[in-house]
Amino acid sequence: MNNTKFFIAALISAAFIPTMASAASYDFADLKWSGSPAKSSGFLPSEVLQKASTASTTSGLGYWNCTGGDVCSSNMDKANTALGGDLKFTSSGLTVTATALFNGATATVVQDHDNGYNASKSIGAGLGVYHLKGNNSDDNITAKETLVMSFANAVALQGFSLRSEGHNTTWNSNSTFSLAVTGADNKVTTFSSLALKATYSLTDLTTLNHNQPLLGSKFAFSYGGTKADQFYLSGMTASAIAAVPEPATYALLMAGLGAIGFVARRRKAA
Q1: What is the structure's pLDDT at 261?
Q2: Which of 72, 204, 233, 250 is a good FRET partner for 34, with 20 to 30 A between their CA atoms?
Q3: Segments forming the whole domain that contains residue 122
C-alpha cells in the first residue's frame, strides 16, 4: 500500500511544473571604455566583437565598438554602412535580443557607455537608437524611435529601469513614454503615457496590468505619450515561464487521480 501511495504521489507531482525560473537581470548601463588599450568593459553583448573595418551589418554577426566607446548593432562609424543588426544579451541562461525602429523602419541599437557609471546613484546610460547613417549625434530613444526587446519564448517582466539624456534620472515634469507588450498569442497590449522614472518594479508592473503578471515575448519601448521625452533603457529583469503542461501531462494526472479512486474503492470493499 505504501508503494502504491508513493507511486500515485509521483504521478501527481509529475503533472505540475514550476511556472517561472529564477530571474535574469540585464544591466545595460554597465558599460565603460578604456582608450589605451581600446577596450569596452562591463555588461557586454553575448556575441562576437567585430573589427571596425568590417562593413557588414547582417543581423546575428555580432556587435561593433562605435562612436568612441559605445557598442552598436551596426558599424555606425562607416558612413556607407546600412542601419540594422541586433545586440544579444544573456543573463542566467536567458537571452534577450535588442533591435531598433525609426518610424517603423529598421534602425541601429546602441549601448551607450559612461565611465562614471554608478548603479547605486543611478548614473549611467543604457540602450538607445540611431536612425541616421554615419550620424551619432543622438543616441537616446527619441521622436519616432522604438527599442524592441525580444525573447525566444514568453517571459514574466519583473521590472526595468530608465535613464535620461543626462545619464541620470532627471526628466521634464510629467514626461512620458509608451510600452507595447506582445503576448504568446501575438496579441499586442499597449500602455501609453507611462511616467518616465528611474525604476518600474514588479509591483508597478503588476498594478499596471490589472493585478496580473506582465507576460510577453516582446517588449517595445517607444518615445511617446502625452508629454514624450527621450530616454535610455538602462536595465531589465525577467523570468522565463515554463511551458504549459502538454495533453500527455494532463493524461498522467488523470491516471494518478484514477489510481487514487481505485485504491479507495479497494480499501472500502475490504
Answers
A1: 55
A2: 233
A3: 18-244
